[in-house]
Amino acid sequence: MQAAKLASESGIILRNHIPPHWKDYKKDATHLKELMGKVAAQFTIDIEDKAVKNACTDLLKGGQRQLRYQLKKTYFDGVPANEVPTTTPVTRMTDDQWKALVEMWSSSKHKEKCVANKKNREKVQFHQSTGNRMKYKDVEPNAIDMFEECHNSTKTGMSEAVKAQMKAIVDEPAPEGKEPKTPAEAVAQTAVPKRSSKARVHELEAQVEAEKQCSAELREKLALDKKVMESEAAREKEREEMAQARKKEQEEMEEAIKKQKEEMAELRKQYEATNNLQKCSPNRPTGGRLELVAR
User: How many CB atoms lie within 10 A of CB 21?
Assistant: First the structure.
């Protein structure tokens, strides 16, 4: 209640005393001080408090915007250029301030901004509004009911196409093994805002950039894997060479042992042959003994 009284009193002060310029309150603090001083005369408030200053600043900003809108609607929109007042039509602003407003309204930049804002307002699909929930006194409303209450116009009601689309999503048979979609999922699927082409371009650019980054990371990973594989191959080759060297050394050792055994066998044969000859000879010395001299 007090906030409504403050807004109402501030509106009266703005309409009667504060000029509706669009940036003067930022450059000149006297407008804000004048508003707070006149408000303080009507209410018991501390004008030095930060919250009070912020509230009065918002009221000043919004009130001046509404006053400019009313002035433009009355004295500029639909009025031929030669019939637009050259002097201020209201007593609370100077001729220079009025000329500055007219110049701003006449600029191409301001006109383009107005056209863009109008197009953006036309894109709104679901106008939000408050609704009466008394009909849900005994039944708990679902997401579709709440959506209808919050996006229901008193003149046209809720869009029948949107309502039918939500109902069709809920009534759609679910695939085997899956649960049917809930009203909340139907609302989420239907009320998704349309993305502009510019947003889509930004999204695609982000995807391309992400893919480039992934490709770079993949190349780095492949290069690292290649180095690891080359290192493993080099170690495997080294192990094979060492195994072959050990095998060759083993074969040479076995060959040497075999050769030594053959030589020993040959010497043994010679020894036995010599002994046999001595036994067969009639003049062999008695008690003599032939010793095998090692080579």
Answer: 22
Residues near 89 by beta carbon (within 8 Å), at least 6 away in sequence? 71, 74, 75, 98
User: Which residue carries 């209450």 as its tokens?
Assistant: 149
CA–CA distances in Å: residue 187 to residues 99, 135, 192, 195, 229: 50, 20, 8, 17, 54
CA dihedral 263, 264, 266, 270 (to 10 degrees): 140
Q: Where are the domains of the chain?
A: 2-122, 134-190
φ/ψ region of 65 (left if φ > 0, alpha if ψ in -120 to 50, else beta) reads: alpha
Rounded to two decimals, the pTM is: 0.39
Tens of pLDDT along 36-74?
A: 888 787 777 787 888 888 888 888 888 878 888 888 888
Residue 19's closest CA among 35, 5, 37, 38?
Answer: 35
